[in-house]
Design a protein that fits this description.
Jelly Rolls; globular; mainly beta; single chain
C-alpha cells in the first residue's frame, strides 16, 4: 500500500506510451506499485500520450492508496453528455472509503464543478441509502457559480482540491484555472469544524458515526463524472502536504 510522505507527489503513467482502456474493476497494470482501479459504468481510455478520457453513465477512476492531507490537481475538458444530470461535472473525492458494497462508513469529502457552473463541497458518510451526501449550509441554499452560463465545452479547465487537517477541523479549498493559463484562483473554502450535519433520516446507520463526525482518517482519491458521452483529463497529480 502506497502512503505518500509530506512533500511527495504521485502522478499517473498516462504518458508512458501504453494505450489501454479500463472497464469495471480493472486494475491498471502500468501503475504498479500504486493500486489504480476503474469503477462504475463506462470506461477510462488512456492514450499513452498524457490524456485520459472517461465515458459512460457513472465512471470513477480510483487511486486506492492512503492519502491524508492532499493537494489534488487535474485539468479537465467537457466534451459531450449522454444525459442531463444536476450533479454531473468535474468531481474529486478525497479521504474516501467509498466502496459501493458498504452502506455505512463511506467517508468522502467532495469538491465539484458541475456542468451547470456551480462549485460546491459535499461530505458523505453513508452510501447506498438514498440522499446521503450533504452540503455545507453556507452554499447549499445559496448556490455559488464559477461559470454562470455553464461550463464551456472543448476548453481545458484546471481544478485543484486541497484537503487538510487544521486545529479546528478539516479545511477544504477549491481552486480553478478557468482558462488553462496557470492563473489559479481560490473560489471556495470551508472548514468542517464538526457541526456539518450528516444525520440519516432512517435507523440503518444510527450510532455508526455521531452527527458531528469530522473525517480525519486517510483514504483513497478518485475522479468521478456522470451521464457522459465523454470528458477528457490531463495533468492529474496528488501531492501530500503538511
Amino acid at each position: 500500500m502506497l502512503w505518500l510522505l509530506p512533500g511527495h507527489t504521485w502522478t499517473p503513467t498516462w504518458d508512458n506510451g501504453q494505450a489501454r482502456t479500463l472497464y469495471l474493476y480493472d486494475m491498471d497494470k502500468f501503475e504498479d506499485p500504486a493500486q489504480v482501479q476503474f469503477s462504475g459504468s463506462g470506461s477510462a481510455i488512456i492514450d499513452g500520450k498524457g490524456m485520459m478520457t472517461l465515458t459512460g453513465d457513472a465512471p470513477r477512476y480510483r487511486v486506492l492508496e492512503k492519502f491524508q492531507n492532499v493537494n489534488i490537481t487535474m485539468y479537465a475538458k467537457r466534451v459531450s453528455e449522454g444525459a442531463d444530470l444536476p450533479y454531473q461535472g468535474f468531481v474529486i473525492g478525497a479521504r474516501s472509503q467509498h466502496f459501493t458494497d458498504a452502506t455505512c462508513g463511506a467517508n468522502t469529502y467532495y469538491a465539484s464543478l458541475t456542468y451547470d457552473g456551480r462549485i460546491l463541497f459535499q461530505k458523505e458518510l453513508f452510501h447506498g441509502t438514498g440522499s446521503n451526501a450533504f452540503y455545507p449550509d453556507n452554499h447549499k441554499n445559496n448556490p455559488i457559480f464559477a461559470f454562470k452560463g455553464g461550463v464551456p465545452t472543448d476548453r481545458w479547465i484546471g481544478v485543484r482540491f486541497i484537503v487538510k487537517t487544521v486545529a479546528t477541523g478539516t479545511l477544504l479549498q477549491l481552486y480553478l484555472d478557468k482558462d488553462d493559463t496557470g492563473n489559479w484562483q481560490k473560489v471556495l473554502e470551508f472548514t468542517d469544524e464538526g457541526s456539518w450535519n450528516v444525520k440519516r433520516g432512517d435507523a440503518m446507520c444510527d450510532g455508526y458515526y455521531p452527527n458531528n463526525k469530522i473525517i480525519t482518517d486517510p483514504g483513497f482519491v478518485f475522479i468521478r463524472n456522470d451521464g457522459l458521452g465523454h470528458a477528457d483529463y490531463k495533468n492529474f497529480s496528488i501531492k501530500e502536504i503538511r
